Amino acid sequence: MAQRAVWLISHEPRTPLCGTVRFSRRFPTVEKRAKVFNGASYVPVPEDALLLKALLFEFRLLDDDKDFVESRDSCSRINKTSVYGIPVGGEELWPVVAFMKNCMIYASVPLVEQTLCPRPPLISISGVSQGFELLFGIQDFLFLSQKNDAELNSKLNQLPDLLLQTCPFGTLLDANLQNSLDNTNFASVTQPQKQPAWKTGTYKGKPQVSISITEKVKSMQYDKREIADMWQVVGTVTCKCDLEGFMPNVTISLSLPTNGSPLQDILIHPCVTSLDSAILTSNSIGAVDDSAFSGPYKFPFTPPLESFHLCYYTSQVPVPPILGFYRIQEEETQLKITVNLKLHESVKNNFEFCEARIPFYNRGPITHVEYKISFGQLEIFREKNLLIWTIGQKFPKSMEITLSGNITFGTKKHEKQSFDQICIGSTAYVKLHFKIIDYTLTGCYADQHSVQVFASGKPKISTNRKLISSDYYVWNSKAPAPVAYGSLVL
């Protein structure tokens, strides 16, 4: 349910155009959706001047338009719904919701989420009822307790900002515009400031700023001299700023420790107002050297109301957090496996969870397992041909753990769809799943004392960070490495 455009047209007889467009609002994102949904039957929303003339003609309000017109006045075209087909530029724009009240024409074009040929029944177009609700809400706002033209003009000037809140991106949230005006601080609504597209209103309440840094580490480890292991960190900085005022300003600084890996390939949210050129030019294509920009990375911005991703980044850390070795040997119906995992000494040894999953797809059912582990617990899922090695919240003091065992498989009774097209025969892997709270592999952090907020009230500032595994594989060292599998690109 959405609107492609909205107009308010005043009827002014005995003037050159017989009317004036007092207000118009188009929603480009909805217009793009209409083009996709309507296909070959799509008719674009016309310019204001063309629509003004077409609507005045449809309502028989043109001074020289007193004669009978077959296409408009025929008995076969009696309109009972206030939904019209308006001829513009040799095509017909339909449906157009329009009615006249107090010498003002209220009109909107609802989105139709299907082709328009043949025309679907009006009852199936939810945007039509939404269009009426929006137009009635605008009418009530303009003329309830309205006393003179000056007050009407003042309310018309408030409409753009009110629609940002009540009908963002063409979708109606609240038809009571007066209620939205009363409950929101619109002291600056008549000022010439332009509301940014990512902010649909203003906040009222206790001020607070929340910053979360999430890094996902990807890794492909082969234990082969001829094929280099690969790993990469992809970071996301998420913010939620509950701040009063029309355009509060916030500056967040991301810092790195002395030995931290520089941030690269930084992508920012449109709300960021300015940025150091050194931040934008740091990318992972060029070689990293001692002169690479290592912060602090300052992001001044005007925050939207909802939670948003302030920026994304990558980083080339020197080593992956967990180094792995995996080897399998086939002996008839039995499989001998060896897995070795080692936590790097620089990584925080305090996991929320950590486990290794070892699948055996495209084989018969697991019938027997003999194993030995130096740490953790092993679960066997026979129906899924899967071993889950639960490591827990800490590695032992040695930072190294091993698993070895013999797995016996039954006869494969029937073909069934593979869970993984890569994990076939000796081309097998161990996939790690882990999460570390209050830690990032790059060392990146947001110091809450360096956060600058230019808004009324002193906000509560909270920060957190975490490291999560994503596509973290250790491949069988004796098998051909599936180098094309997975991607380390953001």
TrEMBL record:
<dbReference type="GO" id="GO:0015031">
    <property type="term" value="P:protein transport"/>
</dbReference>
<keyword id="KW-0967">Endosome</keyword>
<comment type="similarity">
    <text>Belongs to the adaptor complexes medium subunit family.</text>
</comment>
<dbReference type="GO" id="GO:0016197">
    <property type="term" value="P:endosomal transport"/>
</dbReference>
<dbReference type="GO" id="GO:0031902">
    <property type="term" value="C:late endosome membrane"/>
</dbReference>
<keyword id="KW-0963">Cytoplasm</keyword>
<keyword id="KW-0458">Lysosome</keyword>
<dbReference type="Pfam" id="PF00928">
    <property type="entry name" value="Adap_comp_sub"/>
</dbReference>
<dbReference type="InterPro" id="IPR036168">
    <property type="entry name" value="AP2_Mu_C_sf"/>
</dbReference>
<keyword id="KW-0472">Membrane</keyword>
<comment type="subunit">
    <text>Probably part of the adaptor protein complex 5 (AP-5) a tetramer composed of AP5B1, AP5M1, AP5S1 and AP5Z1.</text>
</comment>
<dbReference type="InterPro" id="IPR039591">
    <property type="entry name" value="AP5M1"/>
</dbReference>
<dbReference type="InterPro" id="IPR028565">
    <property type="entry name" value="MHD"/>
</dbReference>
<keyword id="KW-0653">Protein transport</keyword>
<protein>
    <recommendedName>
        <fullName>AP-5 complex subunit mu-1</fullName>
    </recommendedName>
</protein>
<dbReference type="GO" id="GO:0005829">
    <property type="term" value="C:cytosol"/>
</dbReference>
<dbReference type="GO" id="GO:0030119">
    <property type="term" value="C:AP-type membrane coat adaptor complex"/>
</dbReference>
<keyword id="KW-0813">Transport</keyword>
<dbReference type="GO" id="GO:0005765">
    <property type="term" value="C:lysosomal membrane"/>
</dbReference>
<feature type="domain" description="MHD">
    <location>
        <begin position="206"/>
        <end position="476"/>
    </location>
</feature>
